[in-house]
Amino acid sequence: MILRRFEMYSFEGPTSAVEAFARAATECARYIPEVLHSAIGQIKGAPPLNFAWEQAYASPQSYCRYMEHPYHAALLDRYLMIDSPECILTANALGVGLIGYQAEPEEFFLPSGARRVIAMQLREGAEADFAALAAAHLGKDGMLVSVFKDNWFGPRWFDAETIVDPNPMHSHIWEQGFANLEAAEANSSAWRSEAESLTDMMVEMVYAIEPGYGYATSAG
Amino acid sequence: MNLAPVHIVDTASVDPADAMRYAELVRDHLAPAMHDAGAPMIALRTTSDALGEDVLVQVVWSVENHAGWNRARRNFFTDPRWHAAWADLAPLRKGGTRRFYYPLIEGAGA
Fold first, then answer.
1. Chain B neighbors of A80, CB-CB under 8 A
2. Beta carbons of A185 and A46 less than 8 angstroms apart
């Protein structure tokens, strides 16, 4: 199993600062080799969210090496923490700053293309029905990836073990993958009404994948 | 390079009229939360307010290493006092930097 992690941000500030963070995220795996499957994207149509960073980690130990690395503290957090004068992250109430799940890399692997990531609060008892919905749409209407998992990472953001936040806003995540942004945007109607009937709320983020340093060309 | 101890140096540009208020908020509200989180304040200083420009208020926090900073970060981020302090401090800050510093030559100054 691998630890799949998403950071979905609303940035506001000088273009140069946003570009500097994008460069830092894109280059992160060059300096912290424990960061796997690292890619960024510009989120479409989900204001104020406008920036996605997806990664993965082989283990909680690997994740802790990322968390404790000077590159994380001194460079990435320069743009993310309110106590940094160069912070460009704005507050929002969407609860997707850090979400993620456990899976085999083959489940989410996509060498290029676009994602739709849906964070949701699932209705009580709806897990099996939603899992069936996600499975049924894999391979249909251009959906190349369909992973439905519980938001395992959200409560464990500190070390991928300790539950720091016992009540994350989102209980589950549905990650979809497509060949390109047009295919992702075209695929949005067949599942929507059933998905809405199984959830209390959904936050939906679509972006084209911009691979970072070392972005894998195979799942392994 | 041995990255320990770590000094986190926060330099904020502040209107001279706000400098004392900013420093008092740091000393009385932010520093206690940071201390309890594991990152005590070891310096709080300013540039002159008689230069006709914004002053630079500099705060230095100290932790034993980056693992210690990561723990402190979790602790202060889950402390309501830290969030309350920054709700008051952030509007007073006009710019600045945060940088992480380490000893370069042993015995050549902290």
1. none
2. no
Contact A73 B100 (CB under 8 A): yes
Owner of token pair 């073990």: A161
Q: Name beta bridge partners: B108.
A: none
| Chain A nearest-CA residue for B92 | A85
How much is the pLDDT for A217? 76
Higher pLDDT, B29 or A190: B29
The alpha carbon of A34 is separated from its chain's Cα centroid by a whole number of angstroms, namely 17
* Single-letter code of the amino acid located at A86: E
How far separated are the first and last CA of chain B, in Å rounded? Answer: 15
Residue B8 belongs to some domain of the structure = no
Most A-contacting residue of B30, B61, B66, B71 (CB-CB within 10 A), to test interface: B66
Q: With a CB-CB cutoff of 8 Å, which residues 6-35 of chain B face chain A?
A: 10-13
Number of domains in chain B: 1
Span A100-156, pLDDT tens digits: 999 999 999 998 999 999 999 999 999 999 999 999 999 999 999 999 999 999 999
Per-residue pLDDT, averaged over B78-101, amounts to 97
Q: Could you give the domains of chain A? A: 2-211 (3.30.70.100)
Q: Which amino acid appears at position B75 of this protein?
A: N
* pLDDT tens sequence across A63-101: 999 999 999 999 999 999 999 999 999 999 999 999 999
Chain-centre distance of CA B21, in angstroms? Answer: 15
Residue B74 has a pLDDT of: 95
CATH number, residue B78:
3.30.70
